[in-house]
Design brief:
The N and C termini lie far apart (70 Å). With 120 residues, this protein is α+β, with helices and mostly antiparallel strands. The protein has one domain (29-116). 19% of the residues lie in helices and 41% in strands. The longest helix is centred in the first third of the chain and has 23 residues, at 2-24. It is built from 1 helix and 5 strands, in the order αβββββ. It has a 5-stranded antiparallel beta sheet, with no helix packed on it.
């Protein structure tokens, strides 16, 4: 009897804790994955990652792109998996004009990936 009571109490506390955490969780906002990049560089380091499943067929994408700013330019070394293909991505970006509100910014970047390769 004590074991059953202990199990019910544990399940009840777990459900209560999950409910409280859900109520106090901060919202997370994300944008669709685009192949363009904005005219700014990261301050220190960040990881850009996303996962997408196709609705019209059985396929998926997973992107993992860590980026760091070692000495005034952004360096991204990562990769993706689109269905069963894997690609490595190397990108550098240098900020020429900082991005300002209601205005633009300018940067120069170089990207190399398997997408750039000529078809065999």
């Amino acid at each position: 009897m004590a074991c059953r009571l202990h199990r019910k109490l544990k399940v009840s506390l777990t459900a209560s804790l999950q409910t409280v955490l859900l109520l106090f969780a901060a919202p997370a906002y994300a944008a669709r994955p685009f192949f363009t990049d904005d005219a700014r560089i990261v301050d220190n380091c960040q990881i850009e990652t996303f996962y997408k499943e196709q609705r019209s067929y059985s396929g998926s994408e997973f992107w993992f792109l860590p980026a760091c700013n070692p000495t005034g330019f952004e360096l991204t070394v990562g990769g993706n998996r689109i269905e069963r293909e894997r690609n490595e991505i190397l990108q550098t970006k240098l900020l020429l004009k900082p991005l300002e509100p209601n205005a633009g910014g300018r940067c120069v970047h170089e990207r190399r990936s398997a997408f750039d390769a000529e078809p065999a």
